[in-house]
Amino acid sequence: MPSSDQISTVPGLLRNVVENIHSPESTFLIHKKAESWENISFKTTLENADAVAAFFLEKGIVKGDRMGLMIENGPDYIFYDQGVQQIGAINVSIYPTLSEHEVEYIINDSGMRAILVGNNFLYKKILKIAANCRRLEYIIPAFDDHEKITVPADLHLQIISFEDLLSTGKIKTAQYQHDIRAIRETISPSDTSSLVYTSGTTGTPKGVMLSHNNFVENVKVCLTQMEVIDKDDVFLSFLPLSHVFERTATYHVCCTAGCTMAFAQSLELLAKNMMEVRPTVMNCVPRLLERIHDKAYKSGTAEGGVKARIFLWAMETGKNYRQKLDEGKTPGILLSTEKMIAEKLVFSKIKEKTGGRLKFLISGGAALPKNVGEFFGNLGIKVCEGFGLTETSPVMTFSEANRQVYGTVGRVIPGIEVAIQDIETKEIINIQTHDTFDENFVCPEGEIIVRGHCVMQGYFNKPAETAEAIDKDNWFHTGDIGRFYKGYLQITDRLKNMIVNAYGKNVYPTPVENIYLKSLKIEQIFLIGDKREYLTAIVIPNRESMQEKFGLPNEFFESPEIFITEPEIVEWINQDIKLFSKELAKFERIKNFMIKRNPFSMDEGEITPTMKIKRKVVETKYAESIAGMYMASVEAD
């Protein structure tokens, strides 16, 4: 077996681990079954993958066929993916939270032949639309008692449980072993490995074609910047594997470096699972880290008195200690002693809630607010940020293990070029590569564009959209605004999110929203103001804090009234709006706001599966209320 540097396909990565890093009997996957955690070896994983491959070869699945998955994270996802990948079939993962209409569109657009389904709710969703899915041949429930669910009488599809599929496949493995190996060896790095459908914030979802080379090169170069990851690390996976970030930064990293991959039971049980699994590395999104930050501050200061003073002193001590290290200086004896005390009294208790073994966290999916990154740095927990899109496999930049620049998303990875293009003139302001890195480099902001091994093959069956995204010089246009700062990429906002007020001032909503999100009273905020004289916002309060403050029953949040108008609650929020507005330029400050009773919802079509607010949808849906808010502001003047 060649070394990992020579591996060029996704199924080759895991087999390389068994040949060169771990024994086949070593633990690869961990998941909770009933009340206990179960270990699954590399050997069992590969046997199940071979069973999947043998079953589908028997059924006539060929290289290039699209094979669907709509399932929560777990071992079955890995078995199925490894099985279909090694016979050249293409993984099409669907977010379990998508509507029936969106699922039907993806099944038909991709032309998938089979789909693995994770629970009875999803199974019922598939059964409702299956008759409209012209190429779908197999529905594969991966849960118990699927037979109890009524199947439409006119449904001409084969339904086989994943358990039966594996059993049948294992019987056929010996017969097809030679064919599996032969096909696996014919897979080219340029072959499509996966279709990952974009979340569709601006229209119909598009199938991003990512090759084996896209995935393999992406994970390899990221590991060169994260040399601290080794074969003994334990990752806890909770972000959806249907998203390219988790698939690359957890699944493919584990397949390349030989790490153990544990699966959280759910987001609600994540805190409990962290204590049980005690991960050393975890991928997360900024919102999770913001919640940990908010809960830590609330817990540390809620009682006031001595406890609050100790907490705030510890945080200030951690900040001073971190800043010394960031400056390349050695903290003095006094500061080092104070840091040890802060660690014992405060930091260790926060770290215990993560399992106590975290070497670092990897944050992606959106820019992490600077103050949140600094908070974890003060605790001594490194948060490594990265940046990329589905169309870039996904990583374009990644923080180096030994260098932290808060508010940025890292250094350009090896083998690609990242440029900043002027939004108006379309001239390229600057091009940066991994080798041109200068820790003092700064440039003006513009649209971030990229070319190199990370860029997708294109959008499936959409040549016009592909040509619009990738220009004649092979630059992929990300639609994100940013600049280089201290050599690292810094994200400002999405180009399509940019607000241009009535006076022609450009306002990027995300950094402004992040300032207001420092408030422990605010859970979400949505900035409004395009072509208007001033900014307003829709604010979603922190429900727990508001209930404690005003003694509100749960029924308060079940009211049909969308917005909260109680004067005392409005004033409570307004106190923090005024406080944090001082950190902003006058044209960036919120002049008026509405308080939405409940968070923006995926079920209501207001946010994407990756938790991005659909700005056009929200502005259209609440247009009447927004107009009323602006009218009230005029009357108040």
TrEMBL record:
Residues 24-460 form the AMP-dependent synthetase/ligase domain. Keywords: ATP-binding, Nucleotide-binding. CDD domains: VL_LC_FACS_like. The keyword NAD does not apply. GO terms for cellular component: membrane. It comes from the Bacteria. InterPro entries: AMP-binding_CS, AMP-dep_synth/lig_dom, ANL_N_sf. One of its GO terms (molecular function) is ATP binding. This is Long-chain acyl-CoA synthetase. It comes from Pedobacter westerhofensis.
